[in-house]
Task: inverse folding
């Protein structure tokens, strides 16, 4: 008899625990609960904490594709114009809110093997930094860079993989080199970009 009571307490604890963690059980798999009907939009998160967004929540259309840079969840999402391609990448984000720019922009230039020069404010903060770094493994922009319409802002690669998933940049959005290479091939000049 004591065994049955222990079993029901365990089931109840499991159900309460599942409810507290935001999961609904019954189909044999966990499903995120929604808050439909509430004023705030539903945000789905994957196991790594990235928010998976709907492009319709951020863009009017997918003309030339769209790149969404989520500063808070440290992720970059890409949708192709025909919606056949969707990608989600972990990213590095700016160190501070002062270095962060938010809003709409677009890709104005793509560079395979970029060179790098620190901005005047970077040089002011770090006078020991070199004035120029050519393409190669030591380049802070990694193997590829997508230049945005905002001066000094880019979505680029990095050889320093410790930076990904962290607040570690001086304003840019950084990706693993293999991810920026893939995004570089998917995005085009004119692809719309939003940082939020």
Result:
């Amino acid at each position: 008899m004591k065994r049955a009571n222990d079993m029901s307490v365990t089931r109840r604890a499991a159900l309460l625990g599942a409810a507290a963690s935001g999961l609904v059980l019954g189909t044999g798999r966990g499903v995120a609960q929604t808050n439909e009907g509430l004023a705030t939009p539903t945000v789905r998160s994957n196991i790594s904490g990235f928010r998976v967004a709907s492009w319709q929540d951020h863009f009017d259309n997918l003309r030339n594709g769209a790149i969404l840079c989520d500063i808070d969840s440290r992720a970059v999402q890409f949708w192709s114009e025909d919606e056949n391609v969707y990608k989600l990448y972990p990213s590095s984000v700016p160190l501070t809110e002062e270095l962060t720019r938010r809003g709409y922009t677009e890709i104005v230039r793509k560079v395979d093997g970029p060179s790098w020069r620190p901005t005047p404010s970077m040089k002011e903060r770090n006078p020991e930094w070199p004035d120029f770094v050519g393409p190669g493994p030591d380049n802070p922009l990694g193997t590829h860079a997508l230049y945005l319409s905002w001066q000094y802002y880019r979505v680029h690669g990095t050889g320093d993989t410790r930076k990904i998933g962290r607040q570690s940049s001086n304003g840019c959005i950084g990706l693993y080199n293999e991810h920026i290479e893939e995004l570089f091939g998917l995005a085009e000049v004119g692809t719309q970009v939003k940082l939020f």
Observations:
- The longest strand covers residues 103-112.
- The two ends are 57 Å apart (CA to CA).
- The CA atoms of residues 102 and 196 lie 5 Å apart.
